[in-house]
Write a structure and sequence with these properties.
mainly alpha, 4 helices, 0% strand
Length: 119
């Protein structure tokens, strides 16, 4: 839910202006943001933790480097698919969702693994 809000607020910030859509259209975009983060972001984050959770729990630097490389790949693939429009309306919301998953994953999953000695 937090990742969907981060992605939705990014699009909200991009679209608000004089000629932007109305409030009703912006509110309707939250549903697709929620579905997209749950169908794409959550399984990817779960697989990353399942396969490399112990390594990521050892140092926050490894997690930061990993998520920043993922963000670069998201932006490059969005640019390849839809050009500069893709970076603004697909890439940036995806980056915000990925950063949210990384921060929440660190505080809720990886740091407790580290403190319990499971890393």
């Amino acid at each position: 839910m937090a990742a969907a809000v981060a992605a939705w607020l990014t699009v909200l910030g991009l679209l608000t202006g004089d000629s932007g859509p109305g409030f009703d259209e912006i509110v309707k975009m939250f549903g697709p943001a929620l579905v997209a983060t749950l169908l794409i972001g959550f399984p990817v984050a779960t697989l990353v933790v399942a396969f490399s959770g112990r390594q990521l729990a050892r140092s926050v630097e490894t997690l930061a480097i990993t998520v920043l490389l993922v963000c670069v790949m998201l932006l490059l693939s969005a640019y390849w698919i839809a050009g500069s429009f893709g970076i603004l309306f697909f890439g940036l919301p995806s980056v915000m969702a990925a950063l949210t998953y990384a921060v929440l994953g660190w505080f809720w999953i990886l740091r407790p693994m580290r403190e319990n000695g499971n890393a």
